[in-house]
């Protein structure tokens, strides 16, 4: 028994859900699963838009068969070759050996790299598309919009003229398995989904903000009525599509969504943790509403990076370990700057017992950002905060709170 829902007349969702996968790309924790979306258009010609992960292969094949009924499959559009969408391609080709693959040259090359044993030439000549090519299915016409490096080089978005839907590949997608609902307008998206959409962006796509900006410019020329990504919920109302595009505009420029302070500390014996918790309390006293405090050794970087991009200000408490920057903080800051984090005001706390390079190393790593500005002098701690340093901490809180207004 399968429920395959129409997202627009003649366009069906044929994806599925995996609640067992614990880490996406073997890196990013999944607290509540993930979904894989594929779409099937029934018109004078039929077309399958992308496939799914092998974890849901059997239900996917069954869905495609059920929606197609006695129709043959004419076209199979491959818009992204990462295996979470591609390792069921070969299964579809065996079920429908007459289908024509539709993809760009880079996608075809990558497909052959991933599946070297497969001879794709036995399944007809693939249609190798170029930017702007339109495939006519009857009432539905599908235009190719290339989105290189969002987040792989071959990525293609499709704009379907009749429905006004953009099939956006990974972009606009989210971690999290849907609880029955398929559409953004059926849930409280801001409350229940946005944090996982944001974390998905800053895990998967965020490094490539310039390329995101480039594809947003191409999309600006289209009348977009809906967005159908490869993960997460479908945006079927124009206002929902606009909402997530606006978020992507901010994110692609590394602009904060809200005023707020994220404090990230490394701490062996909770002395730096104590300083950060006191600073957070002083910020709260000064009226800062959005405050998040993270132990860098406890929380996966994807959650912290998402919040550092959501909010305007940051504090990093950098302690020394073997005279170097505490390794979890070192790894975290490199991870953060790998995502090209920028446009933020920061404050630094430095903890040393007998010397070390932690502060210099942290500054060197953060220097990769062109517009990362220290609001005040670092607070220097020797092993544990001295009582009289509360005045320095208050001064730091004053500077951050003032900037946060
Ligand atoms: Fe969902 Fe880049 O694969």
Textual characterization of the structure:
Strands 1-2-7-8-9-10-11 form a seven-stranded mixed beta sheet. The chain is elongated and about 80 Å long. The model has no long low-confidence stretch (mean pLDDT 97). It contains 13 helices and 23 strands. The termini are far apart. It binds MU-OXO-diiron. The site of MU-OXO-diiron (FEO) has 8 residues, from α2.
Give the arrangement of secondary structure elements.
Blueprint: E1 6-8, E2 11-13, E3 16-18, E4 23-24, E5 28-29, E6 34-36, E7 39-42, E8 46-49, H1 57-68, E9 75-77, H2 83-86, H3 89-95, E10 100-104, H4 105-114, E11 127-129, E12 134-136, E13 141-146, E14 156-160, E15 165-167, H5 189-192, H6 194-205, H7 209-219, E16 226-228, H8 238-252, E17 258-265, H9 271-285, E18 291-295, H10 301-310, E19 311-321, E20 324-325, H11 327-338, E21 344-352, H12 358-366, E22 372-374, E23 379-382, H13 390-403
Parallel strand pairs: 8-9, 9-10, 10-11, 15-16, 17-18, 17-19, 19-21, 21-22, 21-23
Antiparallel strand pairs: 1-2, 2-7, 3-6, 4-5, 7-8, 12-13, 13-14, 14-15, 19-20
Helix pairs in contact: 6-10, 7-8, 9-13, 11-12
Residues 80, 82, 84-85, 151, 170, 230-231 line the site of MU-OXO-diiron.
